[in-house]
Amino acid sequence: MNDDQLVDRARGGDRTSYEELVRRWGPRVLTFCEHRVRRRDIAEDISQEAFIRGYRSLDRLRDAARFGAWVRGIAELACRDWLRSRSASERSLSSIHERGGDHFARREMSLEERVEHDDELRALIEQVDALPPEFRETIVLYYTEEFTYEELGAFLGVSAATVNARLTRARAMLRKRLRKLEG
Amino acid sequence: MTGDSSRPHSRSQLDAWLNAELDGELTASQRTSLEQANQDVSDDRAELRTIDHDLRGALVRDGDRAQRFVDTVISRLPAEAAGQPPNRIEPSLRVTPFVLGAAAGFVIAACVFGPSFFAQKRLASAPDQPTKIDAPSLKGAAGRAVRLRGKVALGSTKSKGQQPLTAGQVFSESSRITTEDNAICEIELNNGMRILLDRSSEIIVRSDSGVRHVRGRVTVSAHGSKGGGSIALELAGGSVALGTAGDSSIEIRGDLRGQRVLALGGQVRVVSNAMKAKSREATLDPGQAISLDKRKGLYSVQRAVDPIVATSWTHRLLDRAELTPRIEQLVVASNRGKRLPAETLIRELGPLGGEILAGLTLTSDRFDDNVRGDTAEIAAELVSARAIPTLIEFLEHENGSVRASGQRGLIRLTGERIGGDPDDWLNSSATAMKTRSLHVDQWRQWWSENHQRFERD
């Protein structure tokens, strides 16, 4: 069922439809917030509130097909407010992505290979962490949430071409930095 | 081929060079450049594929956490239909002289300030511009939905011509205070201000440290010079747990027959206004509880929990409103005589919930020591390093099995062996107690030196 159908049903009093929207968009909005505020706990609070506010004001959503972007917008403003209200003590992505890693590939590796693999991943995550915010956000959402260009563009409120440009630029920066590290 | 570029820089230029090469028009240096460009494209593609592969491996969604998040949001969705204002529920408080007096105050205010106060209020400003609200405008909002936008300060500033709120003044009854869209609502209780809420009332305050959620049948007042926040949980099963942060106190009044009130932080003043009984009043210090007789409204005050510990976990709960309903479930289940209903429930509570649950079972007299022991172990096994400070508190518990569970949990969570074998903590002899207090100090010292490492989790 499409988002707009779910929104229509939720407006008509079908709570389970809204729950489906939460399942569909909740993790994505959470990831978005995490990379905005860079605090897991705050990101969870803000994302939860965004969905609850969204529920209460669902009748104000004009384009039901853009539910994800709408909730993301609610969350983004709350993130901004939070960032403005205090100097956020930034956390690195490595703490957010502590579970990162290709577990199946890892299982096949020797101990030495695993250590090397983990070091490489850590270095990569550190470099992603150091990207400018819009590039970091785009690349993390693209890989973590498995969006297409079109979907990610709609979610972030930019065009698919902009997503492509950001990913291209982000990868170029990563390549450059990783090359430098490798010396 | 003539051309001053040393390398092809665009698709069309590359095509031109390829054609020129085919036609034998490239110079030797151009041929070398073209070969280099082709090689670079091939290398670039391989390098990009490697980065893409690595990113796919490094940036993965934590599925368990995502699921927990979704479950929490769903459990917090309001009961009303989407896009609808909250259902109005009849207040559970009886009409007391206090409320009648306040109502009379509204009537007088209406006469003095004019009928405009009784129109629907919509107090809005740009998101970044704080909405200043004075006492009279809130009085006019009694019984209505008030929508606030931006930062909100409930003030009583004489210099701006606002009528100061006086102690005992009720400005909002059956009301809902919320924020519009994305604004953050901040409510500051100034000296002498009072808010009366009933079952249908709800205040959500987002603070730097999270969301504070007040719901239920309470009167909240702030008497400190600096004011402060407060929480109130109406626990299913006829209990109300109250706690404050800062220099504040809480007052609960109404027909409290059959209720049990527990003060978790700050002073709690209890006034029972049962219609057929004399008004009864009591002031509870942190850690005290009061039970009100079902028929006569008589009560007895008991010490229920350790005030210091109670306050410490109350403050943590203040920051994690989403845990409240689940803790309520736990309390309900324990009322039915079930022994920790709830390994699954604890799992659902997640890391911080486990910490709070450990605090709750340590401090509340609703739980027996078996439950405390189980909680310590489960918290250590399933939860996180957040439980460490509470587990250290377990070490000082009078019951040996609780102490042993705390020690077992600490060893499991930290990998440290301070204090030795958990079974040694069962011993209650004076010598053992003396040795243990040294170990407790060592644990505390260790935590103060290492907490930053764990708090990164």
Explained architecture:
- The complex is a heterodimer of chains A (183) and B (457).
- Chain A has helices at 3-11, 15-37, 40-56, 67-85, 93-96, 103-107, 111-129, 133-144, 149-156, 160-182.
- Chain A contains 10 helices and no strands.
- Chain A is mostly helical.
- The model of chain A is unreliable at 87-109 (pLDDT under 50).
- Chain B has helices at 11-22, 28-58, 63-76, 97-113, 135-139, 307-318, 324-335, 343-363, 369-382, 388-394, 400-414, 430-455; strands spanning 122-123, 131-133, 145-148, 152-154, 176-179, 194-196, 202-207, 210-215, 219-221, 230-235, 239-244, 249-254, 260-265, 267-272, 280-284, 288-292, 299-303.
- Chain B is of the alpha/beta class and 457 residues long.
- Helices cover 41% and strands 17% of the residues of chain B.
- Chain B contains 12 helices and 17 strands.
- In chain B, strands 1-3-5-7-8 form a 5-stranded mixed beta sheet, with no helix packed on it. A 5-stranded mixed beta sheet of chain B has the order 6-9-12-14-15, with no helix packed on it. In chain B, strands 10-11-13-16-17 form a 5-stranded mixed beta sheet.
- In chain B, helix 10 (388-394) packs antiparallel against helix 12.
- Chain B is elongated and about 105 Å long.
- The interface between A and B is large, with 59 and 43 residues.
Q: Top keywords for this entry?
A:
heterodimer; A: 183 residues; mainly alpha; Rna Polymerase Sigma Factor, Chain: A; Arc Repressor Mutant, subunit A; 76% helix; B: 457 residues; alpha/beta; 2 domains; 5-stranded mixed sheet; 12 helices; 17 strands; 41% helix; elongated
